[in-house]
Design a protein that fits this description.
This protein has about 400 residues and is of the alpha/beta class. It is about 25% helix and about 25% strand. It has 9 helices and 17 strands. The strands form 4 sheets. Strands 13-12-11-14-15-17-16 form a 7-stranded mixed sheet, with helices on both faces.
Length: about 400
């Protein structure tokens, strides 16, 4: 709240202190349960307001049952059901801001025609919202309303532009609450400490984390080589399931919290952390396992969850003769596509960076989620093999532009 233009008035809630007339019908108290059960869908529903009110005339044998009158037929339904003359009354009801949802509040406060922000990503006590340019003048008000209407939140931030730097930190602005960015998040029966202002974390990927860990764990005698591990959303639950994990991230803070999260979830013995460039890490795993005939693990699964650029790291697998290794290398690489046939496009993108037009062995493509209009996130999984180079192959530096 840095300027008077953007500041939230401490009295904004007063706009919602009001008395309204709500239509109801007088019903014998003994029939209230019957009516509320049969006609629950037309009952007046406002947070904090009891749909059954005392009789305004003081008759304790009678109650007033409040009805949603946005549909004129609702009163008629009740009258027809009761088969008697029904007394319709208007009951005064006192409302405050606590009786309104954040959507209702913002719909009333923001200028007509403004898009109402309807969702946010929750990271522990932090709400992360992506506001549009039209919201800029009202961003602190929006943040305060979200904070007020969600008791579990302490901090509301707004994303500023794209993810920045090679370490993938979010750039954001504090809109409401405390500048406390150390969050605690629970996923996959694991507890993660997330320094949200210093590392990449996306709670919307929880389902994908679970899926890939299951894919890896469904195989016996495997190693998970997590190339872009972050603070461990793949690595820690996989290790907890008994998988031997080698996890890497170039961000020193991610590396630090990868170790902390491994320790606090009791899997330090199963997780070997690294703070290396992705290509250097891939080469190290190759030398440690894929070229070592004495290693006992059958498969090494490489997870490459950096969809904006992960395919560029596939050049680290060029010139590998995987067929000569006693162990299998299985790659799970994430990418974005804006094409109509996004699954085929994802495979073509992988082939391009592997400099081949041959079919990828045992390939499968999983649609992770829609990121934005005409932008899909995908995971391409395949077994590494010795692939024939394409004739007249393009230089890697001339690869297709990633959206």
């Amino acid at each position: 709240m840095t300027s008077s233009d953007d500041a939230v008035s401490p009295n904004y809630k007063e706009q919602f202190n009001r008395e309204v007339k709500v239509t109801g019908v007088k019903i014998a108290a003994k029939r209230i349960q019957e009516m509320t059960k049969k006609f629950k869908s037309i009952q007046y529903a406002k947070t904090g307001v009891k749909p059954v009110q005392p009789d305004p005339d003081g008759d304790k044998a009678t109650k007033v049952w409040l009805i949603d009158t946005s549909n004129e037929d609702n009163i008629t339904q009740v009258k027809n059901y009761l088969g008697e003359d029904v007394q319709v009354v208007d009951v005064p009801v006192r409302l405050t801001s606590t009786n309104f949802s954040s959507y209702e509040i913002l719909s009333e406060i923001l200028p007509k025609g403004t898009t109402i922000p309807s969702s946010f990503e929750a990271v522990g006590h932090i709400a992360h919202i992506n506001l549009k340019d039209e919201h800029h003048k009202y961003r602190f008000l929006i943040g305060q309303v979200i904070l007020d209407k969600n008791p579990g939140l302490k901090t509301v931030v707004n994303k500023l532009g794209a993810i920045g730097s090679e370490f993938r930190e979010f750039q954001f602005e504090l809109l409401a609450g405390k500048a406390d960015y150390n969050a605690t998040v629970k996923q996959h029966n694991c507890t993660f400490t997330v320094p949200y202002d210093k590392v990449y974390w996306n709670s919307r990927l929880q389902t994908e984390h679970t899926r890939l860990v299951k894919v890896v764990c469904d195989n016996e005698n495997v190693i998970l080589a997590d190339v872009m591990a972050g603070i461990g959303p793949f690595a820690v639950p996989a290790a907890k399931a008994g998988v031997t994990v080698h996890a890497n991230d170039l961000n020193p803070v991610s590396y630090e919290y990868l170790q902390k999260n491994s320790k606090q979830n009791g899997v330090s013995g199963n997780v070997t952390p690294y703070c290396l460039d992705g290509r250097e890490f891939i080469a190290k795993i190759r030398d440690m396992f894929l070229l070592d005939s004495s290693a006992h693990q059958e498969d090494v699964h490489f997870a490459m969850n950096l969809p904006a650029t992960a395919v560029e790291f596939l050049d680290a697998f060029l010139n590998w003769d995987a067929s000569a290794s006693p162990h299998r290398a299985v790659i799970h690489v994430y990418c974005f596509s804006s094409e109509k046939d996004f699954k085929e496009d994802a495979v073509r993108l992988v082939q391009h960076h592997l400099k081949t037009t041959e079919p990828l062995p045992e390939v499968s493509v999983h649609h992770v989620r829609n990121v934005a209009p005409k932008k899909e996130m995908l995971c391409v999984s395949f077994r590494l093999a010795k692939l024939k180079r394409a004739c007249g192959e393009a230089d890697v530096d001339k690869r297709p532009k990633l959206e």
